[in-house]
Design a protein that fits this description.
The complex is a heterotrimer. By secondary structure, chain A is of the alpha+beta class. Chain A has 16 helices and 19 strands. Chain B is mainly alpha-helical. Chain B has one domain: MetI-like (MetI-like fold), CATH 1.10.3720. Chain B is 68% helix and 0% strand. The two termini of chain B are 38 Å apart. Helices cover 76% and strands 2% of the residues of chain C. In chain C, helix 5 packs across helix 8, helix 7 crosses helix 8 and helix 11 packs across helix 12. Chain C is globular, with a radius of gyration of 24 Å. The relative contact order of chain C is 0.14. Classes of the chains: A alpha+beta, B mainly alpha, C mainly alpha. Chains in contact: A-B, A-C, B-C. At the B-C interface, helix 6, helix 7, helix 12, helix 13 and helix 14 of B face helix 1, helix 6, helix 7, helix 8 and helix 10 of C.
C-alpha cells in the first residue's frame, strides 16, 4: 500500500517531464474576441494568426509570402490583383477551402460592422473566376495591396452561415466571438475569455510543421511583476512584454532568455496646430506658441532623447527622426539625423519666436499604453522645464486619454504609432493628412496638422507603381514633416519577450507571436 | 465666553499632564515610548522636509535624468553624483522623495481623518441628540457604508470628483480628492461611537439641568457631551490615521493615488514595486520601510492608547 | 415587527437604487469604451455609429433606467469586452472569488480566535505581547505589497508555490472548484494569506479584548473559585461569551474580504470577479461594472439587513433603538 503511494508520487513527479511540449505563455492583454474581423488590434490579430490564415502571410523577416494563395499578379495596368488559391486546404472542421470562402470573408471583413474594412477601401470589386482563382479589382493602381491584406483572415462561409455568424457582432457577440474555424496550424480547443485559451496542433494543416508543441495555453497576466515572477518560477514558458527595467537582470539569469527587437511603434510628441490659444497656460492665454515652427523645433532640441534611452529605456530602444522606423518600407535614410539635444539652441529659438522666458502649458500622457510612458513624460517635463517650457503633466489611463485628445484637451500630447502596413504611407495617411471624413484620412491627426503639398502627395504615393517615383514622393513628404516639425518623433519602442531557456522561437517586429515557430527542447 | 462655572485649576496644565494616569502608563510602556519617538521623528522630518532634503524632487527642472538608478552611497556612472539612499528612475534622490512623499502621505492621512472626525462627530452628536427621522437617515447611511467596502467607496468618490473637477485643476486636485475619498469613507466609526455616547449622556442629570437653564442644543452637545466622548474618538482617530495612510497607498496601486510628479509614499511604493526584480531594490525598500515604520508606530500608539484609556482593562 | 422588517427591506431597496444611480453617473468619467472596441484604422464616423449603437450618446439617467429595466428581468446586458452576457461571465467567475474568500475567511477566523485567546490568557507574556505587536505589521503595509513580497519569496526564490492563477480546477455542475486538485490547493495558499491577514489581525484583537472583558466578570471569578480548571473556564465559559460580537464582526467583514479581493486578485491574477471588475474599469466595460457594483451592493445590503433582523430577534433591547425611535 505504502509502496504504491510512493510509486504514485514518483510518477507524479516525472509526469511534467513527459509532456514537455506543453507550452504556457502569458501576455498582458487577452485577445478580446476570436473573431478575426471584429477588432483590428495586435493582441487579437496576433493571436488569431495561429488559428486563421490569410491569402498571404508575413515571414520571419516580414516579407510577404504565400499562404492560402500560392501566387498573385497584377491585372492589366494596375486595375487590380489576381490571386491563385492553394488547393487541398481544409478548415479545422473538415470543410474544403475554395474561392467562395475568399469572397465571403471579403464581404464579411469589409462590412460596416467590421473593424478591418479600411483594408478594403481601395477595392472596388471581388470577382470569383473559378474555384481557385479570385480577382481583386481596385479603384486605382495599388502596388502594396497584397502586403496590406496579410492580416486579413479567411473564414469558412458554410460554418459562418450555419452558426449564424456571417457578420462580426461587436456589440452582442456571436458564435464566432468564442469559437474558431480557420485553416491555421493550430485549433482552439478551449476558450475561457480572460482566463485561458488552449490551442492544439491541427493535424490536417497544409504546411510543413516546424514546431513540436502538443498543447499550448495562453493566459493573460496584467500585473508586470506577477508575469515576471511566473516566468522566473517556471510557471510559464514565455511572457510578453518583459518590463524593460528587468531586461539586464534577466539576461544574467541562466534559466531564462530575453529576446529583443525593435518594434514598429514610433513614440512622438504632438501639438495643437489648429488651436487659437493654449488651454492650460497660466500666463499665455491669448496665443498658441506651438503654432510657430520655431517653438516646435525648440521642443525637439530641448529633449534629451539619448538620456531617455539610456535610463528609462535601459538602452533597449533606438532614437528615430521620422514617423516610421528604419525597418519600415519607405524610410528615408537621408533624414536620419534627429535635432541635436541643445538647450541653448532651444532657448534661442524660443527667444526668436517671442518667448524668451518660455511659457507654461499642459502635457497629456497615457500611463498604461506604451512602455514606461508615464516615466518618459515625467522626464520630458523636467527637460522642457530646463529651457523655460513649464509643462503640467497630466497622465491618465488610456481609456480616458483618447477621449481627452478627441476633445482637444491638451497643449501637447504623447502618441505612439505603429504602421499596420509596414509602409511609410500609413502614418502619412493617419497622422499627417488634413483630417477628412470623406477621404477617410487624418483620423488620428488630433492636432489638425495641415499642409497642402502633403495632402496632394498622399493619393499619388498610394497609387504610384514605380517604386523609385514612389520613394521620391515619400522622401519629399518626410522632409516637409521634419522641416515643419509636425510631430517630434523620439524613439522606436523595443519589443522585449522573455522565454525559459529551453524554448526556441522567432520574434517578428509586429509583435505577433507565431506559435508554429516555437520549439520546446 | 462661558457663564457656566468651571472649577479653577489648582495646578498648571503641565503638572496635570505629567501626573496624569495617561502619562504614567506611557512612561511604563517601552513600546509606546519607542513608537511615539518614531512618529515624532517622522512627522518632524516630513514637516521640515524642505530644510532637510538635499534636493526638491517636486521641481522637475532640477532633475537630471542621467542620475537615474544610482545605487545608495555609490557615485553615478555618468555624473559622478552620490546619493544617500540612491535615486529612482527619474534621477530623483530617494531620500528627498521619501521626505516629501511622507509629507503628502501624512497630510492626506491627517486631513482625511480630520474630515472623517468632524463629519462623524457632528453627525453622531446630531443623530444621538435629535433622534427621529434625522437619526434614521444618518445611521442607515452609516450602516450601509460600514458594510460597503471603504476602497470601493473611495474609488467611487475619486471617480466622481475627478470627473466634476475642471480639467485645468485636476493635477492639484488629486490630493484633495484623495482626502475627500478617504475621509468620506471613514466617518462611520466616529459617528457610531459618538452617537452611542450621546444617547447615554443626554439623559444624565447635568445635561437635563443645562437644558432647563435654557442652553441651546448646540451648546449642550459641544460643551457637555463632546468632552465625554473624546477618549474613544482619540483612539479611533489614531487607528484611522494608520488606516488612511495605508488606504492612500492601496488606492495608488489601483491607479487613483497621488500623481507621480508629486508622489506620496504609496505612489513611491507603487513605482518601486516595478523594480523589485530588476535589482534596484532601494527604490522599493526605503519607501516601504518608511511607510511600515510610520503606520506600525501609529498603530502601536493607537493600541496602547486604547488600553490606557480603557480603565477596565488595566 | 413585520412592519419593521418591511420598512427595512424598503429602505434597502432605496439604497440599492441610489447606489446604482451614483454608479451610472460615474461611468462617463471612467473613460470611453469606444477606443477599445475599435481598432487603429477607425474613423470619426465609426466612433459615432458605435456610440449610438451602445446607447452611450444618451444621458446617464436614461442609460441607468435601461439597465434597471433589463436587470429586473435578469438581463444585465452584454459585456463590451467579451461580447457575452454579463450574467454568464459573473457566474463563471464567482466560484473563484467565493472559494478564495471562504478560505481566507476560515483562516482568519481560526488563527484569529486561537491567537486572540492565547494573547488574552497570557496577557503579560512575552510571546503574547510579541504576537500583538507583530500582528500589526500585517496591517501596516498595503495588501498589494504583501502579495508581491509573498510571490517573490515563495514562488521566485523558494519555488514552493505557484505565482499566479488558480491551478487546475474541476468542474462540478457549473461550479469550478480548486479544492480537488493539488495545484488548485497550492494556488490558494498565497492569495488567501494575503487576503486574510487583515481580517485575522482584526479578529484576534477583538477576541482578545472581549476575552479580557469577560474574564474579569464575576461569574468567571466564581467559576474559578469553584475550582474549575483554567482550561474549562477559558474555553467553556469565557470564549463562548465572546462569540456574539465576534460573529457580528465576521459577518460585516465578509464584505470587506470580497472587496479587498480586488487587489489580491489583481496581484495574483486570480480569475475571480474582482479581477473582472478591474479589467472592466480598464476597458470601460460599463455593463460589467454596473452588474458587479449592483451585485456587491445587493450582497452588502442583504448582509446588513440580515444582521439587523437577527439582532431584532436576539436582543430585544435593541428593538426600540434600531427602529429609529427614541
Amino acid at each position: 500500500m505504502r509502496r504504491s503511494i510512493q510509486l504514485a508520487v514518483i510518477l507524479a513527479a516525472l509526469a511534467p517531464a513527459a509532456q514537455a511540449e506543453d507550452f504556457m505563455w502569458a501576455v498582458n492583454t487577452d485577445p478580446q474576441t476570436m473573431d478575426p474581423h471584429a477588432v483590428n488590434s495586435t493582441p487579437v490579430l496576433g493571436f488569431l494568426n495561429n488559428v486563421y490564415e490569410g491569402l498571404v502571410r508575413r515571414g520571419k523577416d516580414m516579407t510577404v509570402e504565400p499562404a492560402l494563395a500560392t501566387s498573385w499578379e497584377p491585372i492589366g495596368e494596375g486595375e487590380g490583383w489576381r490571386f491563385i488559391l492553394r488547393e487541398g486546404v481544409t478548415f479545422h472542421d473538415g470543410a474544403e477551402f475554395t474561392a467562395e470562402d475568399v469572397l465571403f470573408s471579403y464581404q464579411r471583413a469589409s462590412d460596416e460592422a467590421s473593424d478591418t474594412r479600411s483594408w478594403f477601401a481601395p477595392v472596388s470589386e471581388v470577382v470569383v473566376v473559378d474555384d481557385y482563382t479570385v480577382d481583386f479589382m481596385t479603384t486605382a493602381p495599388n502596388p502594396i495591396f497584397p502586403g496590406s491584406i496579410a492580416n486579413w483572415m479567411i473564414m469558412d462561409s458554410g460554418w459562418a452561415e450555419v452558426n449564424d455568424a456571417t457578420l462580426p457582432d461587436k456589440e452582442n457577440g456571436n458564435y464566432a466571438t468564442l469559437n474558431t474555424n480557420g485553416t491555421g496550424a493550430f485549433k482552439v480547443t478551449a476558450r475561457e475569455p480572460g482566463l485561458r485559451t488552449v490551442l492544439e496542433p491541427f493535424e490536417g494543416w497544409w504546411g510543413e510543421v516546424e514546431h513540436n508543441i502538443t498543447r499550448a495555453e495562453l493566459t493573460p497576466i496584467q500585473n508586470p511583476a506577477t508575469a515576471l515572477a511566473a516566468l522566473l518560477s517556471g510557471d510559464v514558458d514565455f511572457i510578453n512584454p518583459v518590463p524593460i527595467q528587468d531586461v539586464a537582470r534577466l539576461k544574467e539569469n541562466p534559466d531564462v532568455e530575453v529576446i529583443q527587437g525593435i518594434e514598429a511603434r514610433v513614440i512622438m510628441l504632438g501639438f495643437p496646430h489648429e488651436a487659437d490659444t493654449l488651454k492650460y497656460s497660466s500666463e499665455t492665454t491669448d496665443a498658441n506658441p506651438f503654432a510657430d515652427v520655431r517653438v516646435r523645433q525648440a521642443v525637439a532640441h530641448a529633449i534629451n532623447v539619448p538620456a531617455i534611452l539610456q535610463t528609462i529605456m535601459r538602452g533597449n530602444a533606438e532614437a528615430v527622426s521620422q514617423l516610421v522606423s528604419a525597418a519600415m518600407q519607405g524610410y528615408v535614410p537621408e533624414l536620419e539625423a534627429r535635432p541635436a539635444y541643445d538647450q541653448d539652441r532651444a532657448r534661442e529659438l524660443l527667444a526668436e519666436a517671442g518667448y524668451p522666458d518660455g511659457f507654461s502649458f499642459g502635457l497629456k500622457c497615457p500611463n498604461n499604453r506604451y512602455l514606461n510612458d508615464e516615466a518618459v513624460c515625467q522626464a520630458i517635463t523636467g527637460m522642457l522645464a530646463q529651457v523655460g517650457l513649464n509643462a503640467t503633466l497630466d497622465a491618465m489611463p488610456v481609456q480616458n486619454y483618447w477621449p481627452e485628445l478627441r476633445a482637444d484637451n491638451y497643449d501637447m500630447f504623447l502618441l505612439g504609432w505603429s504602421p499596420g502596413t509596414f509602409d511609410a504611407e500609413h502614418p502619412i495617411r493617419f497622422l499627417a493628412a488634413t483630417p477628412n471624413e470623406e477621404l477617410r484620412v487624418g483620423s488620428w491627426n488630433f492636432g489638425g496638422y495641415s499642409n497642402a503639398r502633403v495632402d496632394e502627395l498622399l493619393p499619388l504615393i498610394q497609387s504610384e507603381i514605380d517604386p523609385v517615383a514612389r520613394q521620391a514622393m515619400i522622401d519629399e513628404t518626410a522632409k516637409i514633416l521634419q522641416d515643419e516639425m509636425a510631430y517630434v518623433p523620439m524613439y522606436v519602442q523595443p519589443l522585449v519577450w522573455g522565454i525559459r531557456n529551453n524554448i526556441e522561437l522567432t520574434q517578428r517586429p509586429d509583435d505577433f507571436f507565431i506559435l508554429r515557430w516555437v520549439t520546446v527542447n | 465666553m462661558s457663564d457656566f462655572p468651571i472649577p479653577s485649576a489648582p495646578k498648571s496644565r503641565y503638572r496635570r499632564a505629567v501626573e496624569s494616569d495617561l502619562f504614567y502608563t506611557f512612561k511604563r510602556s517601552p513600546v509606546a515610548m519607542v513608537s511615539a519617538a518614531v512618529v515624532l521623528i517622522l512627522v518632524l522630518a516630513a514637516v521640515f522636509a524642505p530644510l532637510i532634503a538635499p534636493t526638491n524632487p517636486f521641481d522637475p527642472s532640477s532633475l537630471n535624468l542621467m542620475n537615474g538608478f544610482t545605487p545608495p552611497m555609490a557615485p553615478n556612472a555618468f555624473t559622478g553624483d552620490t546619493f544617500l539612499l540612491g535615486t529612482d528612475d527619474q534621477g530623483r534622490d530617494v531620500f528627498s522623495t521619501i521626505l516629501y512623499g511622507m509629507r503628502i502621505s501624512l497630510f492626506v492621512g491627517v486631513a482625511a481623518v480630520f474630515l472623517a472626525m468632524v463629519l462623524g462627530i457632528t453627525l453622531g452628536l446630531i443623530s444621538g441628540y435629535v433622534g427621529g427621522w434625522t437619526e434614521t437617515i444618518i445611521m442607515r447611511t452609516a450602516d450601509v457604508q460600514l458594510t460597503f467596502p471603504s476602497i470601493l467607496v473611495a474609488m467611487l468618490i475619486f471617480g466622481i470628483a475627478k470627473g466634476v473637477t475642471p480639467v485645468e485643476y485636476r493635477d492639484q486636485m488629486a490630493i484633495w480628492v484623495l482626502i475627500l475619498a478617504i475621509g468620506l469613507s471613514d466617518w462611520v466609526q466616529f459617528a457610531r461611537v459618538v452617537r452611542g455616547a450621546t444617547l447615554v449622556e443626554k439623559n444624565k442629570e447635568y445635561v437635563q439641568a443645562a437644558r432647563l437653564i435654557g442652553r441651546t442644543p448646540g451648546a449642550i452637545m459641544l460643551r457637555h457631551i463632546l468632552p465625554n466622548v473624546l477618549s474613544p474618538v482619540l483612539v479611533i482617530a489614531t487607528i484611522s490615521l494608520a488606516l488612511a495612510i495605508i488606504a492612500e497607498a492601496t488606492l495608488s496601486f489601483l491607479g487613483v493615488g497621488a500623481p507621480p510628479t508629486q508622489p506620496s509614499l504609496g505612489t513611491l511604493i507603487r513605482i518601486g514595486q516595478g523594480f523589485l526584480f530588476s535589482g534596484e531594490w532601494w527604490i522599493l525598500l526605503f519607501p516601504a520601510v518608511t511607510l511600515l515604520a510610520l503606520a506600525l508606530s501609529v498603530n502601536l500608539l493607537g493600541d496602547w492608547l486604547r488600553d490606557a484609556l480603557n480603565p477596565r482593562l488595566r | 415587527m413585520l412592519a419593521y422588517i418591511i420598512r427595512r427591506i424598503g429602505q434597502s431597496a432605496l439604497v440599492l437604487l441610489i447606489v446604482g444611480l451614483v454608479a451610472f453617473s460615474m461611468f462617463r468619467f471612467v473613460g470611453d469604451p469606444i477606443d477599445n472596441m475599435l481598432g487603429q484604422e477607425r474613423t470619426a464616423e465609426d466612433i459615432d455609429r458605435l456610440r449610438a449603437q451602445l446607447g452611450l450618446d444618451q444621458p446617464f439617467v436614461v442609460q441607468y433606467f435601461k439597465f434597471l429595466e433589463g436587470a429586473v428581468q435578469g438581463n444585465f446586458g452584454v459585456s463590451y469586452r467579451q461580447g457575452r452576457p454579463v450574467a454568464e461571465i459573473l457566474l463563471e467567475r464567482a466560484p473563484a472569488t467565493l472559494e478564495l474568500a471562504a478560505v481566507s475567511g476560515i483562516l482568519a477566523i481560526l488563527f484569529g480566535i486561537a491567537l486572540g485567546v492565547f494573547t488574552a490568557i497570557r496577557r503579560d507574556g512575552v510571546l503574547a505581547n510579541f504576537i500583538m505587536s507583530a500582528s500589526l505589521i500585517g496591517v501596516s503595509l498595503p495588501t498589494f505589497l504583501i502579495g508581491i513580497l509573498l510571490i517573490y519569496l515563495f514562488s521566485v526564490e523558494l519555488g514552493w508555490l505557484p505565482s499566479f492563477g488558480r491551478g487546475e480546477t474541476v468542474d462540478l455542475g457549473g461550479w469550478s472548484t480548486g479544492f480537488l486538485t493539488e495545484s488548485g490547493l497550492k494556488a490558494l495558499i498565497l492569495p488567501s494569506i494575503t487576503l486574510g491577514l487583515y481580517q485575522m489581525t482584526l479578529i484576534m484583537r477583538l477576541v482578545r479584548s472581549e476575552m479580557l472583558e469577560v474574564l474579569r466578570q464575576d461569574y468567571i471569578r466564581f467559576a474559578r473559585a469553584r475550582g474549575l480548571r483554567d482550561r474549562a473556564v477559558n474555553f467553556r465559559h469565557a470564549l463562548k461569551n465572546t462569540m456574539v460580537p465576534v460573529i457580528t464582526v465576521i459577518g460585516l467583514q465578509l464584505g470587506a474580504i470580497i472587496a479587498f479581493a480586488i487587489i489580491t486578485e489583481t496581484v495574483f491574477q486570480w480569475p475571480g470577479v474582482g479581477l473582472l471588475f478591474i479589467n472592466a474599469i480598464q476597458f470601460v466595460d460599463i455593463p460589467v461594472m454596473a452588474a458587479y457594483l449592483m451585485l456587491i451592493s445587493v450582497m452588502f445590503v442583504g448582509i446588513n439587513l440580515l444582521v439587523d433582523i437577527l439582532y431584532f430577534f436576539i436582543d430585544p433591547r435593541l428593538r426600540a433603538d434600531r427602529s429609529g425611535g427614541h
